[in-house]
From TrEMBL:
EC number in record: 1.-.-.-
Keywords: FAD, Flavoprotein, Monooxygenase, NADP, Oxidoreductase, Signal
Full protein name: Flavin-containing monooxygenase
Listed cofactors: FAD
UniProt-recorded Gene Ontology molecular function terms: flavin adenine dinucleotide binding; N,N-dimethylaniline monooxygenase activity; NADP binding
InterPro entries: FAD/NAD-bd_sf (IPR036188), Flavin_mOase (IPR000960), Flavin_mOase-like (IPR020946), FMO-like (IPR050346)
Signal sequence, renumbered to the chain: 1-19
Organism name: Agrilus planipennis
Lineage top rank: taxon: Eukaryota
Length: 327
């Protein structure tokens, strides 16, 4: 999973004639970008509602055992796994006006700490009062008067409602489908294969020999977690690994070919493998509800804003160096 705060980019669709009434804003998603957008809406005196398809705030930072569909049959967007540690220091993940507690000295936090920060932020600014949980946005339509019609499905009662807004902020993240590279022989592999999107807990790999494909943030972090329980972990990567990995993680070049129970790497070495774990990222989310033929939303994007985050690095001793943490 890409942990960088890229999802903080918010698309705003603004109508042409807003008049002087209170601006009504619909925010889609109660993850980090939805929450900070809500704070700015409140500061500006806007009337806003947040529509969240799950029952929790925090978006991608919420841990769930589910990997495919949630209990309401909606796709699980989060790829969060147990004991994830961020690849960004908290000093770069702080929202303006609300700091992490003084006692939390470490820069690189665990998932539960980050999630608690978002929960605290939500309560502190009374954002929770504006969140409509279990509300799935089915479609957004532009109206001739310049406003927006938001069609909602209540995923519990299965009832549909329609609401009108001046502005819609799309804050539901932009990564969707797991990306799996096409590697020769992969379909003939007889062991377990999965993508990091479906990875949750390390313990199921106890005693196994695991090949992690991909040396990005999730590949590196998951290799750290698996090294504690797996028999052996091989990490196949193409770029420089910026940190020291545990001794039981063996670095390998890219995979040349996959066989029934083994893998051959580009340097000619071959290893027996029980599990292949693809840490190869996700592809961009398509915002399906914006791409109806009769609804050329993309032409209506007027503003692309990058929400201000607190960029004060003075208290961050490790910020200037790459990944200066010990495993
Ligand atoms: C969240 O708030 C609780 C209660 O005030 C506090 O104990 C905790 O340290 C806070 N945690 C974070 C990460 O902000």
């Amino acid at each position: 999973m890409h942990l960088a705060f890229c999802s903080i980019i918010v698309f705003i669709f603004v109508c042409s004639n807003q008049g002087h009434q209170t601006m009504k804003v619909a925010i889609i998603g109660a993850g980090p970008s939805g929450l900070i957008s809500a704070k700015y809406c409140a500061d500006a005196g806007f009337d806003y509602d947040i529509y969240e398809q799950t029952g929790a705030v925090g978006g991608t930072w919420v841990y769930t055992d589910k990997t495919d569909l949630d209990e309401n049959d909606l796709p699980v967007h989060s790829s969060m796994y147990k004991n994830l540690r961020t690849n960004l220091p908290k000093e770069l993940m702080t929202f303006g006006g609300f700091t992490y507690p003084e006692e939390l000295k470490r820069s690189y936090l665990y998932q539960a700490e980050v999630l608690q920060y978002f929960e605290n932020f939500t309560k502190h600014f009374h954002i929770d009062e504006h969140i409509k949980f279990f509300s799935y946005v089915k479609q957004i339509e532009s109206l001739t008067n310049g406003k927006w019609l938001v069609k909602l499905l209540d995923v519990k009662s299965k009832t549909e409602t329609e609401h009108i807004y001046n502005v819609v902020m799309v804050c539901n993240g932009h990564y969707e489908k797991p990306f799996i590279p096409d590697i020769k022989g992969a379909s003939g592999f007889e062991g377990m294969k999965l993508h990091s999107h479906a990875y949750r807990i390390a313990e199921i790999f106890t005693g196994k020999t695991v090949l992690i494909i991909g040396g990005g943030p999730s590949g590196i972090d998951i290799s750290r977690l698996l090294s504690k329980v797996a028999l052996k972990v091989f990490l196949s990567h193409r770029n420089v690994i910026p940190i020291k990995l545990p001794n039981s993680v063996y670095l390998k070049p890219i995979v040349k070919e996959i066989f029934k129970n083994s893998v051959v790497f580009n340097d000619g070495t071959e290893e027996n493998i029980d599990v292949i774990l693809y840490c190869t990222g996700k592809v961009i989310y398509k915002h399906m509800y914006l791409t109806q033929n009769n609804n050329p939303m993309y032409n209506k994007i007027r503003y692309l804003i990058n929400v201000k985050i607190n960029f004060d690095m003075t208290n961050c001793k490790t910020c200037k160096k790459t990944a200066n943490f010990t495993l």
